[in-house]
Amino acid sequence: MERIYIFKRFERFWHWAQAGLIIFLMVTGFEIHGTYSAFGFRKAVELHTIAAWSLITLWVFAIFWHFTTGEWRQYIPTLQKVDAMIRYYLTGIFSNAPHPFRQTTLTKHNPLQRLAYLFFIAVISPVIWVSGWCYLFFDSWKAWGLDQYLSLQWVAVFHTAGAWMILAFFLGHVYLSTAGRTPLSHIKAMITGWEEVEPHTSSGGTKS
Amino acid sequence: MAAVGMPFSGNVDFIRTEMVWPITHMVAPKENALACRECHVRDGGRLAGITGVYLPGRDRATWLDLIGWLAVAAMLAGALVHGGARIIAYRKR
User: Fold this and answer.
1) Please, which residues have CB within 8 angstroms of residue A53's CB and are 6 or more apart in sequence?
2) Average of pLDDT values for A103-129?
3) Minimal Cα distance from B71: which residue of A?
């Protein structure tokens, strides 16, 4: 087994702070939606707004970090080995087959992860953020001339759709985090930064 | 001025006055001021019967919520089935 330092300090902080904020946004968001009562409508709105601005702030740092360190390259989508990944999750994982993807510091995400995160960045995030800002600045629509184009009902539908997508993603993400070498290995890696991987075989083993 | 039989000087001006008016209703203390939840609730709110306006907390696209719940249920079921199968497969080895 080889230990590699795969998640840097800021990255781990970003991950857990983002997770906490997104969970809190879902809890307050579904209360605003009327699904249940917890903080009370007014408090839920206030807390949801504060959490949203906090998450934007966090993302400004995260985007800066990804850009300056070059880590954005880790998210470039690829279809290479996606079929092998799908086969692994459908059958291989049950027979303890070797994982088709080898994690390295330059390729920390497997191809399916890259596609999932691409969907999150390109679809889910824009939907939730754009609709959220429209919602937040509802009182200014008329002054900005937006009341000709926007309806609160449709802003709400898009924002709710984004929320359901994030909730579904969250459940899949938490479950798949247990699909590492051991059920806790990925979670430990996101806490300590270190992951244990198969040693690199010079005779050309499985190259990602 | 003719009504009271007094001469009219021809000058008009403003004068400061103070009046006390009774009101016909009470003003509630601030703790009882209208709360958000009075209207922004699914059922029984003050604006429950009002149509033509979207009220967050009262209104929703029920079709979207159905799809959402189904997606969530599918994810949970998938995780349970897949995870369960992994546990069983592990125990067999």
Assistant:
1) none
2) 94
3) A168
Q: Give the closest residue to A64 by CA, choosing from A105, A114, A10, A110.
A: A10
Question: What proportion of chain A, given as a percentage, has pLDDT over 70?
Answer: 96
Q: The whole model's pTM is what? A: 0.86
B60: nearest CB among A41, A160, A171:
A160
Total CB pairs under 8 A between chain A and B = 83
Task: Quote the CA–CA distance of A83 and A81 in Å, as a whole number.
Answer: 5
pLDDT at A45 over 70: yes
How does DSSP assign B12-43, residue by residue?
Answer: ------------SS----GGGSPPGGGTSSSS
The pLDDT confidence band at residue A55, using thresholds 50, 70 and 90, is very high
| pLDDT at position A152 | 96
Phi, psi of A5, deg, nearest 5: -90, 100
Asked if B46 is an interface residue toward chain A (Cβ–Cβ < 8 A), one would say no
Q: B26 to chain A, minimum CA–CA distance in Å? A: 25
Alpha-carbon torsion (A22, A28, A31, A37), positive or negative: positive
Q: Give start and end residues of each alpha helix (H) in chain A.
A: 9-33, 41-69, 82-90, 111-119, 125-136, 152-176, 185-192
- Residues B29, A125: contact at Cβ < 8 Å? no
Nearest to A30 by CA among A193, A167, A132: A167
What are the φ and ψ backbone dihedral angles of A196, each rounded to 5 degrees? -100, 125
Pick the range with the lowest mean pLDDT from A68-72, B26-30, B45-49: B26-30
Instruction: Name the DSSP class of B2.
Output: G
Alpha-carbon torsion angle B67, B73, B78, B81, nearest 10: -150
Between A157 and A101, where is the model more confident? Answer: A157
What are the structure tokens assigned to A199, written together? 């040693």
